[in-house]
């Protein structure tokens, strides 16, 4: 397996499976009447446990304000997004099978951000990105209608 293939496996395929399983856990938890605050704290405990284990077994412990601030912002944005999904499921009876494809349109935000903020447009195949964008939008429209 090449480095590029390994990167796709580790950074794309395995996380897709883990995020899919987390979506199932999300609906499961919200169906059992957890309050939104307790829900987010419980998720935070899970994330904290993963971080503590990694810190215990990873000798590289480097960080700075420039690296920690965006990580905290990531947690805040992610937490707010997860909160809204939880409210949609628990209060409005929204179906996960409809919500998941819609909230995974976050890909478009990440791609646009990467293209402009990190200048990835220099190496990107914009035609493929354009077709991929159209497919993502069509998928979201299809499942939500």
How is the biggest beta sheet arranged? none
Which structural class do the helices and strands define?
Answer: mainly alpha
* Beta-strand proportion: under 5%
Number of helices: 6
Number of domains: 2
> Unreliable stretches, pLDDT < 50, 5 or more residues?
none
Described by the principal axes of the CA atoms, the overall outline is globular
Number of strands: 0
| Mean pLDDT, all residues | 91
The helical percent reads over 70%
Distance between the termini: 41 Å
InterPro entries: Sugar_transport
Transmembrane segments: 6-25, 37-59, 71-90, 102-121, 127-144
Pfam family, one: Sugar_transport
Keywords: Membrane, Transmembrane, Transmembrane helix
Helix and strand layout, with pairings?
Layout: H1 3-31, H2 36-57, H3 65-92, H4 96-103, H5 106-117, H6 126-144
Helix pairs in contact: 1-3, 4-6
């Amino acid at each position: 397996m090449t480095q590029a293939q390994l990167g796709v496996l580790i950074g794309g395929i395995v996380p897709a499976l883990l995020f899919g399983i987390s979506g199932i856990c999300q609906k499961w938890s919200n169906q059992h009447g957890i309050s939104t605050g307790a829900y987010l704290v419980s998720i935070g405990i899970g994330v904290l446990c993963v971080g503590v284990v990694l810190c215990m077994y990873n000798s590289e412990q480097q960080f700075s304000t420039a690296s920690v601030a965006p990580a905290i912002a990531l947690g805040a944005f992610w937490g707010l997004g997860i909160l809204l999904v939880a409210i949609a499921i628990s209060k409005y009876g929204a179906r996960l099978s409809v919500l998941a494809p819609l909230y995974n349109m976050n890909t478009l935000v990440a791609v646009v951000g990467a293209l402009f903020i990190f200048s990835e447009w220099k190496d990107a195949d914009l035609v493929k990105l354009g077709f991929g964008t159209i497919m993502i939008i069509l998928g979201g429209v299809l499942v939500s209608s």
